[in-house]
Q: What sequence folds into this?
């Protein structure tokens, strides 16, 4: 989870942290189960590479989302960074979290829906 947190803080996630973790786990589990059900002579490592690359493309952006013109990437990066902030009071962090963790912002970014 700490790797996902670092990606979120850097604005690299296309989805929120919880969904990113779920997508990664689902992809890994599906890959392993599929791999194990294939006869050994049909196990092509290219399958695993393609699954990994598809998952990475679904979860991360090629550039930090905080450079996007919309608020969703910046909101995700801010939300991820808030718990580590020491300059804000607890009430300020809570207020910022409520403002930035609205359902409309925590949804998947438009780039993922295409």
A:
């Amino acid at each position: 989870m700490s790797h996902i947190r670092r990606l979120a803080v850097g604005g690299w996630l296309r989805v929120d942290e919880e969904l990113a973790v779920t997508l990664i786990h689902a992809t890994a589990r599906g890959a392993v189960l599929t791999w194990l059900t294939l006869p050994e002579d049909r196990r092509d490592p290219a399958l695993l590479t393609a699954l990994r690359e598809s998952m990475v493309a679904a979860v991360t952006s090629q550039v930090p989302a905080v450079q996007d013109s919309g608020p969703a990437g910046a909101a995700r990066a801010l939300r991820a960074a808030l718990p580590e902030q020491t300059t804000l009071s607890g009430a300020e962090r809570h207020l910022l979290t409520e403002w930035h963790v609205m359902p409309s912002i925590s949804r998947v970014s438009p780039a993922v829906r295409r």
Observations:
- The chain has seven helices and no strands.
- The chain has one domain: 2-113.
